[in-house]
Design goal:
It is a single chain. The protein is an alpha/beta fold and about 400 residues long. It has two domains: about 250 residues, Rossmann fold, CATH 3.40.50.150; about 120 residues, Immunoglobulin-like (Sandwich), CATH 2.60.40. Helix content is about 25%, strand content about 30%. The protein contains nine helices and 18 strands. A seven-stranded mixed sheet has the order 3-2-1-4-5-9-8, covered by helices on one side. The chain has a five-stranded mixed sheet with strand order 14-15-11-10-18, with no helix packed on it. A four-stranded antiparallel sheet has the order 13-12-16-17. Helix 4 packs across helix 5. The two termini are about 45 Å apart.
């Protein structure tokens, strides 16, 4: 099976449904990024995409590619806020290390903010590092099962570790934290994500130590003794950071990375991180489309601001790059909380109507959700409705029509 997978062709964005490609290019453009530079082929060996994202969307490569893009933009929102708060912008950032970088979904964007010689990637999969070196021209380091064997002499201003500590047992958690903290420049910042204890599987209980480790993951090749699924309390992480030299300052951001992980930002000795604030990208989706008279369609769905103390300030319907409708929330949607345990805010429901006087056949509908955090999220559909992008946990939910 592994040999057959390795020989299978990479996934080209050119091969996905053109309507989904239009969604992707539109979303990337809203960030002021180059879609062509982002939409390079996805290598078949990328376990995150082909063994996690794609199966969760019924092997539909088009919706999976959109979800890959959506998640990467949220990923970038996290990194950008750290850079702005800790360094004052990308132009003041020297060296960036993406540790446990996989096949470089974040690198696709970072190359549009930094020079290749400023970007360093590391991963336990040597093929992933080699692929990034060749595809992106960045520097790369092979990671190791044991942090004591990591061979990396460079120092970095920002080290970002997305979704490695959410897979480590306790002993490796402490050792990798110390090893990566030691790679910071004076004044540098280490940021890493974890599964908070609120995401512990139903029926399971936290260990008294503050970490619970399960010997399974999406990886089909890493030893479950060193890479599984871990859930931690803030007390556990705080104690781990307290072991680092120099009594570093640190901050925790609820669901600050991805949609289900907390983010910790740790400063090098003497580094002030009080100006760092990381909000979560608003999320939402279309759910129903009801056909009324004279070609009018009523759409409905949900939206969620996940950041504590923040709120959605505007929902707007945009077609052809122009706002056609402002949408007022019409109810609360506590049912959506099934997919967002212990969310900081209650999801809201919305609905709006579009007819031929506002929308042309085949036109792309963009629902934009703006927050007072300064971040925004988007959901997409087509007029008249044939399908839509939405979100319900990690599964695909088809647009319900009536």
């Amino acid at each position: 099976m592994a040999v057959e997978q390795a020989r299978a062709p990479d996934l080209s964005f050119d091969d996905i449904d053109p309507r989904y490609r239009a969604f992707i290019e539109d979303y990337i453009g809203l960030y002021g990024l180059d879609a062509a530079a982002f939409c390079r082929p996805l290598p078949r060996a990328d376990e995150m995409f082909f063994k996690a994202i794609l199966p969760n969307y019924e092997q539909d490569a088009s919706i999976a590619a959109f979800k890959f893009t959506e998640a990467t933009l949220r990923h970038f929102d996290t990194v950008r806020q750290i850079v702005d708060g800790a360094f004052g912008g990308f132009e003041k950032l020297g060296s960036f290390l993406d540790f446990a970088s996989g096949y470089g979904r974040l690198t696709r964007i970072m190359l549009q903010k930094l020079r290749p010689d400023q970007i360093h990637v590391a991963d336990i999969y040597k093929d992933a590092v080699d692929w990034q070196r060749q595809a992106f021209g960045v520097a790369g380091t092979y990671s190791t099962p044991d942090p004591a064997h990591l061979q990396h002499a460079d120092r970095h201003d920002l080290i970002f570790v997305g979704s490695l500590f959410s897979h480590l047992p306790a002993e490796l958690f402490h050792r990798w934290l110390a090893a990566l903290y030691g790679l910071l420049t004076p004044g540098g910042v280490l940021a890493f994500s974890v599964h908070d204890e609120s995401f512990l599987p139903q029926g399971e209980a936290m260990d008294a130590s503050g970490i619970r480790y399960f010997r399974f993951s999406e990886s089909g090749s890493l030893d479950a003794d060193i890479y599984g699924m871990s859930y931690v309390s803030e007390a556990f992480v705080g104690e781990a950071i307290g072991r680092l030299p120099g009594r570093p300052a640190w901050r925790r951001f609820h669901k600050g990375a991805y949609e289900n992980q907390d983010l910790y930002v740790v400063g090098a000795p003497g580094k002030d991180v009080s100006n760092v604030f990381v909000a979560s990208t608003p999320m939402g989706g279309f759910e129903t489309a009801t056909h009324l008279t004279n070609g009018t369609v009523e759409f409905s769905g949900w939206a969620l601001e996940r950041t504590p103390g923040r709120r959605l300030t505007r929902l707007s319907v945009q077609l052809g790059g122009e706002t056609r409708l402002e949408v007022a929330p019409d109810c609360e949607r506590p049912d959506v909380l099934t997919h967002f345990p212990k969310a900081a805010n209650t999801p809201i429901g919305w609905r709006f109507r579009l007819g031929p006087e506002l929308a042309r056949p085949g036109e792309m509908i963009r629902l934009r959700m703006d927050s007072d955090s300064g971040l925004f999220g988007c959901a997409y559909a087509e007029f008249p409705p044939r399908f839509a992008m939405t979100y319900a946990g990690w599964s695909r939910r088809a647009l319900r029509q009536g």
